[in-house]
Structure formats: C-alpha cells, structure tokens
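Shipment paperwork, digital attachment
Item: protein structure file
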Amino acid sequence: MGSRASTLLRDEELKEIKETGFSHSQIRRLFSRFTSLDKGESGTLSREDFQRIPELAINHLGDRIFNAFFSEGEDQVNFRGFMRTLAHFRLIEDNAKSKDVNGPEPLNSRSNKLHFAFRLHDLDKDDKISYDELLQVLQMMVGVNISNEQLGNIADRTI
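Attachment content:
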C-alpha cells in the first residue's frame, strides 16, 4: 500500500475542491474512489486507470467521457481535475440561496453542462459539430442496432 500521505486529503485541498459544489462527505467518498483507481499510487490517474472502470468500458461513449478528464496533450489528471470534470455531471441546483451572484458560474450550471456535452461531440475539436461527427457519435451510441439510413435520417433532422 502507498504512503499514508498519498491516501489523505488535506484540509487545504478540500477547500480548493469545494468549488465543485460537492459536499465534504461526497469529496471524501470520491477521493477514496480516486485513490482506489490510482494503481500506480502517484496521486494521479492515467487513461489506463480510466479504462479499468467497468461502467466506462461498456459505455459506447466511454472513450469520449474519460478523454474529457484530460487537458490537451496531458495523460494524467490529479484529484482536483478529476473533481472539476465530475462536477459537470452533478444535478443543476435551482436554489437561489446556493448561488453566489459575485462568484464564478458553478461548474454544473446549464451553460457549463452544455459546453461540456458539446466538447464530447466535437470530435476534431474545431468548435463545430459537423454532420460526419454527429454520425460518428450516433454510431458510437447505437452501434449496429439501427441502419445507416436511419442514422442518416436522425443526423439530417438534428442538423
């Protein structure tokens, strides 16, 4: 097992990660999951670590999802980056009391969620989703369950 320091989450780290909107107990639980995935005990997760997650392995968009955790040219993500990406999957809170009008927009806001989802579908990262990219994503999602003609019709109506 790794050193004790590598498995503890310090209070200063907790404070920085609070920007994600997760509760203290959620952060601790996700940190436990993060450390269990960190097979190299390096304090970071690699693409290979993500590929070992069964739920992503069977998801047709699994590659797109775990690639979202990594910045361009990076092959490791630390816990803070892990949490910032997971925050996009949190429910949107419409409670006005939980919003800081002077602070940054929450990571799980509608606009941030839309931007995140857009990036999952923008395969060539040109800030546009082309007809061909839409077809590719649809094929990832449905596989061989519907015909190419049906996929084309869906893409046509969507575009």
